Every structure is written in structure tokens, then in C-alpha cells.
């Protein structure tokens, strides 16, 4: 275990699988206590077991389906964090759904609404409910997960792409609001093509072995929660540039 995130409390959404699972493990390996939020309890329990099995700080499991969670559910979570911990230091918005790809002309309205609920509305409600706990940290972080299709539109990516444009919008609005009034740093990250279930669903013919693993992205995810990234605020970040930056920092420190 290293100690870049020692003593910090970080909440990760979609912590049961893919990039969120790798982030939860990486944050715990750096000394953070992690709140594992996700919809499948068994997956969260497996991540919990893995963290505890490595002798890392005991995480907290918080099962929640972002498709159906209400403002009350988010407020209850914010209140219980404030009661049990001095502050929340990090919030990684990672959970998202993709939905079936298809042209807007034939895009099912129900799928559109569900994707926007999980990928955008839930992120807004969770952020709002957790801001009081984040404000108690002396170095708070909100990291939102974007995508290349949230920075340039792509045919057939429908609500998923639009939800990622909205993610960038929420990041920018919140970052501007907090710029001069808070020490909380808000950014978005595009993890790029990564070997996960979501990628497999989007590109079923692709060989997953050709893709970077979620674990290989973690130096950047840890960096963005650590004190070293304090100067980064309101930026739409790209994983490859960040990983190169982290590697350079390491090289010049050694
Ligand atoms: N993989 C890529 O190539 C790629 C590229 C660009 C951006 N991204 C972004 O990176 C992030 C992580 O993606 P990933 O590839 O790791 O996806 P993933 O493997 O599909 O994992 C998504 C996670 O989100 C959770 N989740 C989905 N719907 C939820 C809901 N209603 N309530 C609570 N949790 C829910 C899932 O829970 P369950 O496991 O229980 O279903 C899962 O743990 C996403 O924001 C995605 O848009 C990924």
C-alpha cells in the first residue's frame, strides 16, 4: 500500500465492475476509505472482500440503483456521510449505461429517458446531496466520467453521447461556480477505449486483448484525487495526456 490518498474518504459510483471497480481498489491501495456505490450488491461485496483481503482500509458498501433513486435517497446518503465521517474528499462519477446504438429517427424514447436519468440526472442529484460533505474537506475532488462521443458527436450513439455532453456541461458550470468560493476541484476525464463490459457491448467484434485494462488507467485516476492535481480545475481531461504527465512527474522526481 502507498499513501497518496491516506486518510481520505472517496465515493465511487459503479464500483462493482469495470473502471469503477479498478478505481475503488486503486484508491484503497493508496490508503483511502472507499464508499462503494453500485446497483449489484454481489459485485460490491466482491470488491469489498478484495479490498479487505489485501489488508486495506475497510470500505463501505452502498447499494443504490441510479435509475430509480430519489432525491431523498441521495440526501440520506449525504446526511449519513456527514454523521459518520469528518468530510468527503472525493467523488468519482463513473457509473453510466450505454443502451442499444441506433439513429435518432428510430431511437426509443424510453431508452433515452432511462440513460439520461442514470448518466445525467442521478449525477446532478448525487453531486448536490454530497456538496456539503465535500465542502468539509480541505482538498475535495469531483471527477466526472466523459467519453470521446461527449466531446464530438458521433452518429448512432444517441442518448449516451448526449449524456456525456451534459456531463461536460455540468462539470463546467459547477467548476465555474466553485472557482472562487471553494477548494473543491471539478474535472472530467475521458478514459478512452478500455477493456470492460461496456466496451464489449459497443464493439462486439473487437478483440478485448487489444485494449488497455482498467487497471492500467489507475495512475491517472489516483493522481486526480491526490494533492498533486490541486491546480487542475474545470478541465476536460484526456487519459493518455494525463498518464504521460504522471509518468513525467515520476521520472523527474526520481
Ligand atoms: N470502457 C470504455 O471503453 C469507456 C470509454 C469511454 C468512457 N467510458 C466511461 O467510463 C465509465 C465506466 O465505464 P465501464 O466501461 O467501466 O462500464 P461498465 O463495465 O459497464 O461498468 C459500469 C458500472 O456502472 C454501474 N451501473 C450501471 N447502471 C447503474 C445504475 N443504474 N445504478 C448504479 N450503478 C450502475 C454498473 O453496475 P453493474 O455492474 O451492477 O451493472 C457497473 O458497475 C462510464 O462512465 C463510461 O461511460 C468507458
What does this entry show, briefly?
This protein is of the alpha/beta class.
Outline the fold blueprint.
Layout: E1 9-13, H1 18-29, E2 33-38, H2 41-53, E3 60-63, H3 71-84, E4 90-93, H4 109-135, E5 141-145, H5 158-178, E6 185-190, H6 197-202, H7 218-225, E7 236-238, H8 239-253
The chain binds NADP nicotinamide-adenine-dinucleotide phosphate.
Verbal overview:
With 254 residues, this protein is an alpha/beta fold. The protein has a single domain, classed as Rossmann fold (3-Layer(aba) Sandwich). It has a 7-stranded parallel β-sheet with strand order 3-2-1-4-5-6-7, sandwiched between helices. Helix 1 links the parallel strand 1 and strand 2. The longest helix has 27 residues. The radius of gyration is 17 Å and the shape is globular. The chain starts with 8 loop residues before the first strand and ends with a helix. The model has no long low-confidence stretch (mean pLDDT 97). It binds NADP nicotinamide-adenine-dinucleotide phosphate.
Which key phrases capture this entry?
single chain; 254 residues; alpha/beta; binds NADP nicotinamide-adenine-dinucleotide phosphate
Rg, alpha carbons: 17 Å
**What fraction, in percent, of the residue positions are helical?**
40-55%
Overall tally of domains? 1
Low-confidence stretches: none
Along the chain, the helix and strand elements come as EHEHEHEHEHEHHEH
Which range does the strand content fall in?
5-15%
Order of strands in the sheet with most strands: 3-2-1-4-5-6-7
Amino acid at each position: 500500500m502507498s499513501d497518496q490518498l491516506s486518510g481520505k474518504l472517496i465515493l465511487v459510483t459503479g464500483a462493482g465492475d469495470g473502471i469503477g471497480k479498478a478505481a475503488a481498489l486503486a484508491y484503497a491501495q493508496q490508503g483511502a476509505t472507499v464508499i462503494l456505490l453500485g446497483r449489484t450488491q454481489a459485485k460490491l461485496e466482491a470488491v469489498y472482500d478484495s479490498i479487505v483481503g489485501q489488508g486495506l482500509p475497510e470500505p463501505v458498501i452502498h447499494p443504490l440503483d441510479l435509475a430509480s433513486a430519489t432525491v431523498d435517497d441521495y440526501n440520506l446518503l449525504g446526511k449519513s456521510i456527514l454523521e459518520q465521517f469528518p468530510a468527503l474528499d472525493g467523488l468519482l462519477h463513473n457509473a453510466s449505461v450505454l443502451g442499444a446504438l441506433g439513429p435518432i429517427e428510430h431511437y426509443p424514447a424510453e431508452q433515452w429517458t432511462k440513460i439520461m436519468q442514470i448518466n445525467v440526472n442521478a449525477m446532478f442529484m448525487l453531486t448536490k446531496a454530497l456538496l456539503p460533505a465535500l465542502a468539509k474537506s480541505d482538498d475535495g475532488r469531483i471527477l466526472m466520467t466523459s467519453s470521446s462521443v461527449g466531446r464530438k458527436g458521433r452518429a448512432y450513439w444517441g442518448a449516451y453521447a448526449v449524456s456525456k455532453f451534459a456531463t461536460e456541461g455540468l462539470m463546467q458550470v459547477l467548476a465555474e461556480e466553485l472557482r472562487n468560493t471553494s477548494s473543491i476541484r471539478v474535472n472530467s476525464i475521458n478514459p478512452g477505449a478500455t477493456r470492460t463490459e461496456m466496451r464489449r457491448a459497443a464493439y462486439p467484434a473487437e478483440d478485448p486483448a487489444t485494449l488497455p485494462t482498467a487497471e492500467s488507467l489507475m495512475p491517472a485516476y489516483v493522481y486526480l484525487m491526490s494533492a498533486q492535481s490541486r491546480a487542475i480545475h474545470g478541465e476536460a481531461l484526456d487519459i493518455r495526456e494525463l498518464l504521460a504527465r504522471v509518468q513525467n512527474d515520476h521520472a523527474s522526481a526520481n
